[in-house]
Design a protein that fits this description.
The complex is a heterodimer of chains A (421) and B (137). Chain A has 421 residues and is of the alpha/beta class. Chain A has 15 helices and eleven strands. Chain A has one domain: Thiolase/Chalcone synthase (Peroxisomal Thiolase, Chain A, domain 1, 3-Layer(aba) Sandwich), CATH 3.40.47. By secondary structure, chain B is mostly beta strands. Chain B folds into two domains: 44 residues, no CATH class; 82 residues, OB fold (Dihydrolipoamide Acetyltransferase, E2P) (Beta Barrel). Classes of the chains: A alpha/beta (421), B mainly beta (137).
């Protein structure tokens, strides 16, 4: 029997920052990292001295391939003046920085360090799209890549299996997209901070200005059904089911619980942390759930003593619309086969009982893969401290939030639960 | 008696020879495709080769309009999508493969459960020959 997981000592988050996500011609990884680091430092209420940072953990998927430069732990450490402190890079595909966060937590919980910087960075947009796709496909199983599966392709296949088993359709996926865009509209750091309605209006205005035929979409779903506006990428995944190519960075400062109040009167505590591994598509008994997410969730819930219903809001890894629906089920928020119904009923909207991806999610906030895990926790930080502005979750006494991160096609999944006391 | 090691390399060689080969644990009977050299069910290390009959059905699929460079070189694009999927074999085991004989321009007409038969797609010549696993509807 596996014993209950626990930390050797408590760990708190006392600062967080992230760059605006987007596709940058005039900024690289280093510029974006400095942006995130500077915001993190200024977010520490009572101030933090970078000289007190004991170690750096950096999540990064593949600078090796996309930037043709590897070994970025010390590069980033030098960038923010931490040399000669140790720097460790973690790789877990799109979950790279959730792993950095977790390693940072363990390093403090073990008693070895007191103050740790956990972070993630990725630069994707300066490569041609085919090379970005080729890089991402390196994180599918080799069997899948060989028979032509792309990332959208794997999630497309998962969607067809889910549709068949539970009777969901493409129309249900559209509800996820519309909701994510509505949230991102309120997030100034999001890559696409506009609603689907805003997008429709701007396309209509552009057509009118150019004297072209003006589209006559009645509503958002009609826009999403229009193959010109929303072309297929890998059936049934269309353009608006897929997260974009992004550049970005995110940072968090972790400290031992006993010194947290030296940094802020409002720290957040790491109460649950879980990670699981998953199999390739062909080896899973069923392609309508992610085994690694279920395992990560079980670990995090058991450690925290919390249940899915105790999580008041969450960031969930929506690399593709179908992934958000399935993860809502794998995390226990809704029963298997009921995730798509919950989204349709509006239960996951910002003003619903279980707000999901208040940041706009990967779909709209952007997905610079190595930075995503920590950036999800940045959103949890903003919400739990009541600093999320227009997109603040309207639930009274907001205390518990979680972030779920997935790497590859489900090979690495994590769930992290933060609490405000 | 087949003596090749239970590896991805042997698996690819068998595909070149138009054989779909998995491995079975002699101790507990667990079947693996592609082959494994150790049994991850009982951790037995005594395996044997098993040839699959090559019949099955479609359990998940996608029709890809934006493919990787090697598929684009084969002539696939937005106007000519290709299908990749998961086939469940009669032996009760699944494998990913290219799916042929379906109308990829009308993916909504492709049905889960469609019966499939194995095909081998050979690319390149002699020592550079590589064979991709496919199933035809």
């Amino acid at each position: 029997m596996q014993r209950k997981r626990k930390l050797g000592r408590g760990v708190a988050v006392v600062g967080a920052g992230m760059s605006k996500f987007g596709m940058y011609k005039d900024k690289d990884s280093k510029d974006l990292f400095v942006e995130a680091f500077s915001e993190m430092l200024s977010s520490v209420d009572k101030g933090a001295d970078p000289n007190d940072i004991d170690a750096l953990y950096l999540g990064n998927f593949t600078n090796d391939f996309w930037v043709h430069s590897a070994h970025w732990g010390p590069v980033i450490s030098d960038l923010v003046g931490l040399i000669p402190k140790p720097a460790t890079r973690t790789e877990g595909a799109c979950a790279a920085s959730a792993l950095a966060f977790r390693e940072g937590v363990f390093a403090i919980a073990s008693g070895f360090y007191d103050v740790v910087l956990v972070s993630g960075v990725e630069e994707m947009s300066k490569r041609p799209t085919e090379e970005v796709a080729e890089g991402l496909a390196m994180a599918t199983s080799s069997y899948e890549a060989e028979v032509g599966f792309t990332f959208p392709g794997v999630f497309g296949a998962v969607a067809t299996a889910y549709f068949e088993k539970y009777g969901a359709t493409r129309e249900h996926l559209m509800n996820v997209t519309i909701k994510s865009h509505n949230n991102a509209r309120l997030n100034p750091k999001a890559q696409f901070n506009l609603s689907i309605r805003d997008t429709m209006n701007s396309k209509i205005a552009r057509a009118e200005k150019k004297g072209e035929p003006v589209p006559t979409w009645r509503d958002e779903k009609e826009f999403l059904r229009d193959p010109k506006a929303n072309p297929v990428v890998a059936w049934p995944m269309h353009l608006y089911d897929c997260c974009p190519i992004s550049d970005g960075a995110a940072c968090m400062l972790l400290v031992a619980e006993e010194i947290a109040k030296n940094f802020t009167d409002n720290p957040l505590y790491v109460v649950g942390i879980g990670q699981g591994s998953g199999r390739a598509l062909h080896a899973a008994d069923d392609n309508t759930y992610f085994e690694a997410t279920r395992y990560a969730a079980k670990e995090a819930y058991e450690m925290s003593g919390l249940k899915p219903e105790d999580i008041q809001f969450a960031e969930v890894h929506d690399c593709f619309s179908i992934a958000e629906i399935i993860h809502l089920e794998d995390l226990g928020f809704f029963k298997p086969g009921e995730g798509y119904k919950a989204v349709e009923e509006g239960l996951t909207r910002l003003d619903g009982p279980k707000p999901i991806n208040t940041s706009g999610g990967l779909k709209c906030k952007g997905h610079p893969v190595g930075a995503t895990g920590v950036s999800q926790l940045f959103e949890v930080w903003k919400q739990l401290r009541g600093e999320a502005g227009e997109r603040q979750v309207p639930i009274k006494n907001l205390r518990i939030g979680a972030a779920h991160n997935l790497g590859g096609t489900g090979g690495t999944c994590s769930l992290t639960i933060l609490e405000r006391r | 008696m087949e003596e090749r090691p239970f590896s991805d390399i042997s698996y690819a060689q068998f595909l070149n020879e138009e054989k779909l080969m998995g491995s079975r644990c002699k101790k507990c009977g667990a079947l693996f495709l592609p082959p494994r050299s150790i049994c991850t069910k009982c951790y037995g290390a005594d395996m044997e080769w098993v040839e699959m009959k090559g019949k099955g059905k479609l359990v998940a699929f996608t029709c890809i309009s934006v493919g990787p460079p090697f598929m684009i070189r084969e002539g696939y694009d937005r106007a000519h999508p290709y299908c990749s999927g998961v086939a469940e074999l009669e032996e009760g085991i699944k494998i990913v493969a290219r799916i042929e004989g379906v109308d990829t321009t009308k993916p909504e007409t492709i049905k889960i459960g469609t019966p499939l038969a194995v095909r081998y797609l050979h690319r390149g010549e002699a020592d550079n020959m590589k064979t991709y696993l496919a199933f035809s509807a």
